[in-house]
Amino acid sequence: MGRCPPFLTAAVVAAMFGGASAAAAAENTPDAGAAILQASAAALCPDILLNPEGTEMATEGPLAGYRLGAVRDRGPEGRWVRREVRLDGPVGAPDLGLEATRAGGQLRRISLTLYDGDIGRPLITALADSTCRIHHARALRYDDDGMALELVHLSADLASEEQVEALNPPVPAGEDPGGVTVAHIDSGVNYLLPVLAERLARDGEGRALGYDFWDLDARPFDGDTGRSAFFPIRHGTPVASLLVKEAPAVRLLPFRYPRPDMGRMADLIDAAAAAGSSVVAMPLGSREAEDWTAFEAAARRHSDLLFIVSAGNDGRDIDAVPLYPAALALENMLVVTSADAFGRLAAGSNWGSESVDLMVPAEQLEVTDYRGARGRASGSSYAVPRVAALAARLKAANPQWQAAELKAAILGRAVPPLERGRPKVAGGWIPNPAEDN
Q1: Domains in the chain, start-ordered, CATH in brackets?
Q2: pLDDT in tens, 417-436
Q3: In 143-235, where does DSSP find H-type helix?
Q4: Which of 41, 80, 270, 284 is 20 to 30 A from 5, comparing alpha carbons?
């Protein structure tokens, strides 16, 4: 597939340059986007964030023709803590958004973002300090079908590219590794890293079997863009790296979860079962029960699959304030949370004497991050791959076991935690899930 010019579509830039040809306009695309952002930082910020209706709009220069659009505030009425101001661009030009948080009367985390005026697609964002001085910027490059292909890190003056990250690269060729299949439902994985690529589940022709149920393609590349298209959360890779570390013979089946439509979870679970999964690792959740209706029905339908689910990291009792899918009553599910090395609930990890089954040590664990670098990670998300790896090793040693037998064997390893008082979890603590005996 072809790629649109960097930063802005040629049609948008042509309009901005008074009818210049698309080819000529594309040559000035970086300068066009930079001019709008730099002008807005200099002429509008911070006044338009503090007093949107009272700020005078430009009549000439890069911001000529822009008009105040929506103003969205979050926080107590009259005392907003987060504000977004949208400016509608003239016909054919990008829209402009300015956003900031406010603490102690001071503006913080100021961002200035350009959007495709026709479809609202994000194009460039610039981050600025409290004085509206730009210190960093990022841009997105799209293919002809509107798929984001690359994330470009720009210099503070917006004049040069400092780094380019792939967002949807092809899965490298390889052979199926064999072993117990574990489906990993998360933000995707960086399958370009050899440590993960060599364990990918594949068909007879070497094609990877994972799938992106967010973008609906066969490239479940790591990136949760729900909060920001410019700052994706790379959660899936370090979690999966711990899984393959503790179960090195696992057959990894990565799925990118369907945030735009959680009803697709039914198709996702069906795909996991069709690919031969025995264990499903799910280090994710939300507070909305309706997000998980399709998943619950599919999990009940596939009673032979064992689901390992995170309890979450809100520092709360999820018996009292439920988190899903952890709070669902599924026989073929284990809910896990993080403990320290001494059997005490880790700070910030959720608990529940009815909803949470196990604690396992999941603090300061060595993982491989999205870049391929070694690092440390903590939290109940990292309890999930430890227990999923244990389940995979038990399944490899006992191929005839199904979800019920695997669950019973795992719970049978638990011992009472060292904490006093009312139990924080139903099943106890596994001091070292990496041990097979």
Answers
A1: 10-166 (no CATH), 181-429 (3.40.50.200)
A2: 877 778 899 999 999 999 87
A3: 194-197
A4: 41
Q: How far is CA 245 from CA 23, 67, 199, 237, in A?
A: 50, 54, 11, 12
Who's near 41: CB < 8 A, 6+ residues apart?
Answer: 112, 126, 128, 132, 133, 134
pLDDT digits (tens, 9 = 90+) for 167-178: 999 999 999 999
Radius of gyration of the chain (CA): 25
Distance CA 326, CA 282 (A): 10
Distance in angstroms (rounded) separating the CA atoms of residues 326 and 351: 10
Residue 362 C-beta-side C-alpha neighbours within 13 Å:
37
Which has the closest alpha carbon to 127: 111, 138, 107? 111
Higher-pLDDT residue of 271, 28: 271
Residue 135, both tokens: 């210190």
Instruction: Give the per-residue pLDDT at 138.
Output: 96
* pLDDT > 70 fraction of the chain, expressed in percent and rounded: 93
User: Token pair for residue 355?
Assistant: 């909803």
Q: Which residues pair with 248 in a beta bridge?
A: none
118-152 b/e with 16+ CB inside 10 Å = b? eeebbbbbbbbeeebebeebbbbbbeeeeebbbbb
The phi-psi region of residue 372 (left if phi > 0; otherwise alpha if psi is between -120 and 50; otherwise beta) is left
